[in-house]
């Protein structure tokens, strides 16, 4: 038998990874497992998941530099070295209020570490979408990948929650078409 506390920890991992089953990476097995774990832990999946995501999405006193590096992963996309960070929040307003400083921090990462581009996904858990902030070159890679005007420093991507399934594949496809 699994102790209640262990079931709760495992449930937390599943709910976090699947963003309460909203991520396109979520599988039926994730849902089945979560239901079994919730029963052992004695919690309501939805209420527990919302409480957990709220607690984990508070940016508190994070600086723009910390947000720019939060959950940072490096990718080789075509000829370009790209870093993509992701922060999932219940309300994007606090993060977007510091967009200017955030973009400056992203530029500093590119300059210091030699990346071609830095992207930050500000993922809205409730509305199931992402504000994609970007800096570096070629910005046309962003425009080609997401079929939007990328002349600024951000675009909104409704329904986008996953870096692995919804950001990297279109960027990789765009890189095949786009050459400097």
Secondary structure layout plus pairing:
Layout: H1 4-17, H2 28-41, H3 45-56, H4 64-69, E1 73-77, E2 80-89, H5 93-96, H6 99-113, E3 117-124, E4 129-136, H7 139-146, E5 154-158, H8 163-177
Helix pairs in contact: 1-2, 1-3, 7-8
Quick synopsis:
The chain is of the alpha+beta class. Helices cover 49% and strands 20% of the residues.
Describe this structure in words.
This protein is of the alpha+beta class and 180 residues long. The protein contains 8 helices and 5 strands. It has helices at 4-17, 28-41, 45-56, 64-69, 93-96, 99-113, 139-146, 163-177; strands spanning 73-77, 80-89, 117-124, 129-136, 154-158. The protein has a 5-stranded mixed β-sheet. A hairpin with a 4-residue loop joins strand 3 and strand 4 (129-136). The chain is elongated.
Keywords:
180 residues, alpha+beta, five-stranded mixed sheet, 8 helices, 5 strands
- Output the strand order for the largest sheet: 1-2-3-4-5
The poorly predicted ranges are none
**Binned strand content:** 15-25%
Overall spatial form: elongated
Kindly report the oligomeric state of this protein: single chain
- Structural class estimated from helices and strands: alpha+beta
Series of H and E elements: HHHHEEHHEEHEH
Q: What is the C-alpha radius of gyration, as a whole number of Å?
A: 18 Å
Largest sheet: 5 strands, mixed
If you average the pLDDT, what whole number results? 93
Give the distance, in angstroms, between the N- and C-terminal Cα atoms: 59 Å
Compute the number of helices. Answer: 8
Helix content: 40-55%
Number of strands: 5
